[in-house]
Every structure is written in C-alpha cells, then in structure tokens.
Amino acid sequence: MKTLQLLSWLTGLAGFGLLVAGVAQLNVPAAYIVAGAGLLSWSKLADRAAAQIKAGG
Fold first, then answer.
1. Does 48 score more than 70 pLDDT?
2. How far apart are CA 25 and CA 55, in angstroms?
3. CA gyration radius, the chain
4. Ramachandran class of 56: left when φ > 0, alpha when ψ lies in -120 to 50, beta otherwise
5. For residue 10, is it within any domain?
6. What is the pTM of this model?
7. Coil, strand or helix: which one is 57?
8. Which of 2, 16, 37, 50 registers the highest number of CB atoms within 10 A of its CB?
9. C-alpha dihedral over 21, 22, 27, 33, to 10 degrees?
10. Could you give the CA distance from residue 14 to residue 22 in angstroms, rounded to a whole number?
11. Higher pLDDT residue, 35 or 8?
12. What's the total number of domains in the chain?
C-alpha cells in the first residue's frame, strides 16, 4: 500500500510540474499564478490531513 501512495504522490507532483511548464510556454506570469494557486491548494489539503490525523480519524 505504501508503494501505491508514493507513486500517487509522485504522479501528482509530475502532473503539477507539467501543468506549470505548459502554462509557462504560453505566458510566464500566468505560470507563476498557476504555481501559486496549486501550492495554496496543496497546503490546504495537507493542513486538513494533518488535522484529521491529530484528531485520531
């Protein structure tokens, strides 16, 4: 199960990188906006996961 979680995380990271790289080919400032929005979303998901683990669920 641990391997599947690692592969899922790496696939998501690669997809995010490819998305930012594709947007950067169109417009570099837009790539920064997409990267920032993606990192904010990731931070929110990580915070929710940490709170759920801390609550014991």
1. yes
2. 43
3. 14
4. left
5. no
6. 0.77
7. coil
8. 16
9. -60
10. 12
11. 35
12. 1
Please report the pLDDT score of residue 39 as a whole number.
92
46 assigned to some structural domain: yes
DSSP annotation string for 3-42: HHHHHHHHHHHHHHHHHHHHHHHH-HHHHHHHHHHHHHHH
Q: Which domain holds residue 50?
A: 27-57
Pull the structure tokens for residue 19: 């998305």
CB atoms within 10 A of CB 31: 17
Each residue of 12-32: pLDDT tens digit? 899 999 999 999 999 999 999
pLDDT at 57: 59
Q: How many residues does the chain have?
A: 57
Note whether residue 5 is domain-resident. Answer: no
